[in-house]
Amino acid sequence: MVRAVVNYIGMIADVAMVRDEIVELPERIGFDDLRNELSLGNTLRFRAILERSAITVNGERLEPGESAELKDLSAIDVISPR
């Protein structure tokens, strides 16, 4: 497990009530698993926005079906649609 910094950008930050947080994640994680991990303990509205949000890992967009290698303090940006 590694610690990653998750930055919420746009409307999702308001719904999450935080702009960023540190979460523990596996060193390798798929798009769907990452989305599931981020939705744990959050509201249905957060989950609905997350479903439509873009996710980047260290500046590289992560697409459905892809996975990412994480290092300690990797940056994950969750960018909600306008």
Question: Could you please describe the fold and organization of this structure?
Answer:
With 82 residues, the chain is of the alpha+beta class. The protein contains three helices and seven strands. Strands 2-1-7-4-5 form a five-stranded mixed sheet. Strands 3-6 form a two-stranded antiparallel sheet. It has one domain (2-79): Beta-grasp domain (Ubiquitin-like (UB roll)), CATH 3.10.20. 23% of the residues are buried. The mean pLDDT is 97.
Key terms for this structure?
82 residues, alpha+beta, Ubiquitin-like (UB roll), 5-stranded mixed sheet, two-stranded antiparallel ribbon, 7 strands, globular
Q: By CATH's scheme, which homologous superfamily applies?
A: Beta-grasp domain
What order do the strands of the largest sheet run in, or round the barrel if closed?
Answer: 2-1-7-4-5
Indicate the structural class: alpha+beta
**First-last Cα distance:** 33 Å
InterPro entries: Beta-grasp_dom_sf (IPR012675)
Helix and strand topology:
Elements: E1 2-9, H1 11-16, E2 20-25, E3 28-30, H2 31-39, H3 44-52, E4 54-57, E5 60-62, E6 67-69, E7 74-79
Parallel strand pairs: 1-7
Antiparallel strand pairs: 1-2, 3-6, 4-5, 4-7
Concise synopsis of the structure shown:
It is built from three helices and seven strands. It has helices at 11-16, 31-39, 44-52; strands at 2-9, 20-25, 28-30, 54-57, 60-62, 67-69, 74-79.
